[in-house]
């Protein structure tokens, strides 16, 4: 990544309240460069370079950082694709032990490769469908945070996320403009899973009119009436 893009990333991160140190910026640069190489081969994303990539993928991912509890140490990114938001969050929050799950073997091969380049030995990668992991008792109720960036319908994501999140943990759905309709449709599912919508964070993606919303769910028995 050229210096101008590194500076752009650092400045845009500060705009959303995230300060990236030199080591983190270097890791983002490595991630960016490797992403460009692999994207040309296996089509990881349609937005593939320059400031639009920085905004659409890195900054968009970092928008979730304030919603992650300070005490959280484990995070599962369901349907991570090319590693968003899990890899950026793992770079920006060194205490997070991140697990990336995706059904595409090509994408998880890329992730394993780039994590070696980044020296991120604390990040795990699982190839498979989230639904198929429900029978893996070692994965159940393991994570402080379960997150996904617009990969699943909200009702389905809450059902899946509830199987993986700890009792005291949170489920974070990163959504776009249709979030209100999805939230209404998911109300019964949330109640059945003993989840309560604890926070709604609305913003626009920088340099864009695209709406971004983070829906943060917690178990209802975490709340005192």
Walk me through the structure.
The model has no long low-confidence stretch (mean pLDDT 91). The longest helix has 21 residues. A seven-stranded mixed sheet has the order 3-2-1-4-5-7-6, with helices on both faces. 38% of the residues are buried. Helix 1 packs parallel to helix 3 and helix 2 runs antiparallel to helix 5. It starts with a helix and ends in a 6-residue tail after the last strand. The radius of gyration is 17 Å and the shape is globular. It contains eight helices and seven strands. The protein has a domain of 155 residues: Rossmann fold, CATH 3.40.50.150. Helix 6 links the parallel strand 4 and strand 5. The protein is α/β, with parallel strands linked by helices and 225 residues long.
